[in-house]
Amino acid sequence: YLYKAQKKIVMKLTSLSLVYTLLITVSCSSTIYLPKSNASRLNPFDEIIILKNDSSYMIPFRKYPGHNEIRYMVRDTIPAIEPVYLLIKEELSSEGFNCTIWETLPKSKNNVIYLTYQDYWERDFKKYMHMLVINVWNPEDEIIFKVVSYSHSKGLHNYPTPTKQVPLMIDELAKHLNP
Question: Which residues neighbour 12 within 8 Å (Cβ) at sequence distance 6 or greater?
Fold first, then answer.
């Protein structure tokens, strides 16, 4: 009788591990992609000005809009959850770019590009960053590059955070910025 009970327990654990493995296989990881690239409009620059953003946006639970639609899903504007601008500056500096952080857009400066960002958060079992959008602008107010970190809509979340995503995003962006 003990042998049969042990066998049942082993079979249950095996089936649970198979289910867990399957869930991990289809788990929700984040994707980094570059939906907008207009490298021909990138002029030589000496500095990247990062515009500090003091707010984060919350979107409803289990809504998965794309990067163009997400601004219409914002449920609440809250104080910035994490200092994304510091992470961006640190990563860009480690890639060899000269960066400064500004509170507001400076009046005309020569040989600069501007970087803005917005983070969108959602609550699941815990709060996680659903999307982070980084835009690189030229002085003529044109978006040259847009880099997006997007958490997929199906499966388990890997609970992305700026700390996890910004290095990957800046790595992708740095491939396109040639100072």
Answer: none
User: Cβ distance 43 to 138 under 8 Å?
Assistant: yes
Beta bridge partners of 179: none
Asked whether 50 and 166 are in contact (CB, 8 A), the reply is: no
Question: Alpha helices of the chain — where are they, by DSSP H?
Answer: 2-25, 84-94, 162-174
Q: How many CB atoms lie within 10 A of CB 61?
A: 9
Full-prediction pTM beyond 0.70?
Answer: yes
Backbone angles phi, psi at 94, to 5 degrees: -70, -20
Buried-exposed string 3-27: b where 16+ CB fall within 10 A, e elsewhere: eeeeeeeeeeeeeeeeeeeeeeeee
149-167 pLDDT, tens digit each: 767 555 445 667 888 888 8
Helix (H, G, I), strand (E, B), or coil: what is residue 140? coil
Copy the structure tokens of residue 24. Answer: 């991990």
CA distance 64 to 125: 16
Residue where the block lists tokens 């997006």:
148
Question: How many other C-beta atoms can be found within 10 angstroms of the C-beta atom of residue 87?
Answer: 20
Decide: helix, strand or coil at residue 106.
coil
Over residues 82-95, mean pLDDT: 94
Report the candidate in 81, 82, 63 with the shortest Cα–Cα distance to residue 73. 63
Q: How many residues does the chain have?
A: 179
